[in-house]
Amino acid sequence: MADLAYLGPEGTFTHRAALDLAAEGETLLPLDHAADVIAAMADGRADGAVIAFENSLDGPVAANLDLLIATDEQVVVVAERVLEVVFTVWRRPDDDASLAGVVAHPVGLAQCQGFVHDHGLQTRGASSNGVACRDVAASDEPGWGALAGPDAGTRFGLVATRVGVQDDDRAATRFLRLGRRCPARSGRDRSAFVLRPDRDRPGSLAHLLQEFSARGLNLTAIKSRPTKELLGEYVFFVEAQGHLQDPHMREATLGLLRSSVDVRFLGSYPEDPTRPAPSTGSPPTDDEPQRRLRRMLDRVAPEAP
């Protein structure tokens, strides 16, 4: 029976995503650290892995993006899931002290920083929000609570004292399922690559991105991460709408491979059908760009006569 590794314990947001992304007959394998989740797949203990990838408030989960980039080339993204994120304060039922501090994953703390600041709370990090609940339940320190999902604390005997403490009610987190073979195109897909341009060639990144724009492929993400080898040297995670089996995406990929750049294919996968549609703003009027440029120039010192 196949196993699907995820950041546990049960009750984490990643657990919810794993339940949605698991195939029939798969057994979920909870682990305490994201690095362990990916390692379980790399060493054969699991056939797939689910990781948090980005959220709508803070952008990419940098540590997980780095882990993904560092995986073996046989590891690819095969699916995604977007979940609305609602944070609850969980406390021990016998703790009557005023709330003095909260424990959560660093990403969770960042998504609730307004609540933390307004109440003057201390903070502690945990490897997951589920682990935060487990730690609070096992502690006898008064005045501490865990920030976690709506059903995360009940399995540890905690009680919800406040619901919806995240900074934005529209908060959502995107999760990726990793595997070793991408599904065939669905008609609504995304493809991801890691590009390492030539740092000594001006415009090298722009040249690479033109492989997509010249073929009408919409880029949905460009994220830079340091190579950890040399200061100022970066790799780029690039995601575009379309599947590698689509003719235009194949042509764009071939253009990348013909250039003097390291190209890593990270997978083609169907978009989550529940993903919110991107908002479309009104096009600027003819005069608006000129007005905005003048306001920018007003903030620049005039040239010497």
CATH fold label of the largest domain: D-Maltodextrin-Binding Protein, domain 2
Mean pLDDT: 88
**Share of helix, binned:** 25-40%
Major β-sheet profile? 6 strands, mixed
- Summed up, the domain count is 3
Shape: globular
- Counting helices, strands and paired strands, the structural category is alpha/beta
Radius of gyration: 22 Å
Beta-strand portion reads 25-35%
CATH superfamily of the largest domain: Periplasmic binding protein-like II
Number of helices: 9
Order of H and E elements: EHEHEEHEEEHHEHEEEEHEEHEH
* CATH hierarchy, class of the largest domain: Alpha Beta
Molecular structure report:
The structure is a single chain. The longest helix has 12 residues, at 247-258. The strands form three sheets. Strands 1, 2, 3, 4, 5 and 11 form a six-stranded mixed beta sheet that branches. The protein has helices at residues 13-21, 34-42, 62-69, 106-111, 113-118, 129-138, 204-213, 247-258, 288-298; strands at 3-7, 27-31, 48-55, 59-60, 76-84, 88-91, 101-104, 122-125, 144-148, 159-163, 172-179, 189-196, 219-226, 234-241, 262-270. The model has no long low-confidence stretch (mean pLDDT 88). With 305 residues, the chain is an alpha/beta fold. The protein folds into three domains: 1-84 and 171-181, Periplasmic binding protein-like II (D-Maltodextrin-Binding Protein, domain 2), CATH 3.40.190; 88-165, D-Maltodextrin-Binding Protein, domain 2, CATH 3.40.190; 184-276, Alpha-Beta Plaits, CATH 3.30.70. It is globular, with a radius of gyration of 22 Å.
